[in-house]
Amino acid sequence: MSTTTVVVLVAIVVAVAAAVAVILKNRRSQRLRSRFGPEYTRAFEESGSKNQAEAKLEKLEKRVQRYNLTPLSAPARAEFMAEWQGIQSRFVDDPKGALVEADTLIQKMMTARGYPVSDFEQRAADISVDHPLVVENYRAGHEIALRLAQGRASTEDMRQGMIEYRTLFNDLAGEPEMARVATSARA
């Protein structure tokens, strides 16, 4: 083989390898964007780098896969639903207490499902893996609960916090969000 032929073959191999690498990287990005939804954008905005954001999300995904996450049993689901109904009914008379109870109930549900309950940021990150469309509701509700603790939340804020928590509550209590998304996509 001539030197020119070898150079051309090497160039072709390098070009094919580069094309395969770009295709695999694009598939990875698309998979993560699809899996994490708005959380993908949040990770990118926080890191300022697509590669760092994707590495962070993949690491998070692997960590959560090690958890023994389970759906709620029917009796546990019924108990949580009854507790949630009680919290909602107390909101009119005690919005502060109801919001604090809602925050606590969400943590109890997460524990019952198998999520380790550590600090809030870790809980929100863990939830984002399987519930990316509602994790922002959790963050918003928690932010309102923090403002409440500082005496800076109005009754309207607390009402909004309950709505945010209810969205996550419904997702944790019911069919997993990603299963609903997949089912609606097939329909």
How would you characterize the overall build of this protein?
- Residues 176-187 have low confidence and may be disordered.
- It contains nine helices and no strands.
- Helix 5 crosses helix 7 and helix 7 (135-149) packs antiparallel against helix 8.
- It folds into two domains: 3-65; 74-186, no CATH class.
- The chain is elongated.
- With 187 residues, the chain is mainly α.
- The N and C termini lie far apart (57 Å).
Could you provide a short overview of the structure?
The protein is an all-alpha fold. The protein has helices at residues 3-36, 38-47, 50-65, 74-90, 95-113, 120-130, 135-149, 155-173, 177-186. Helix 4 (74-90) runs antiparallel to helix 5.
Question: Helix count?
Answer: 9
Shape: elongated
Spatial separation of the terminal alpha carbons: 57 Å
Order of helices and strands: HHHHHHHHH
Largest sheet: none
Q: What's the rounded overall pLDDT mean?
A: 89
Q: Based on helices, strands and strand pairing, what is the structural class?
A: mainly alpha
Rg from C-alpha positions? 22 Å
Count of beta strands: 0
Question: What is the domain total for the residues?
Answer: 2
Estimate the helix proportion, in percent.
over 70%
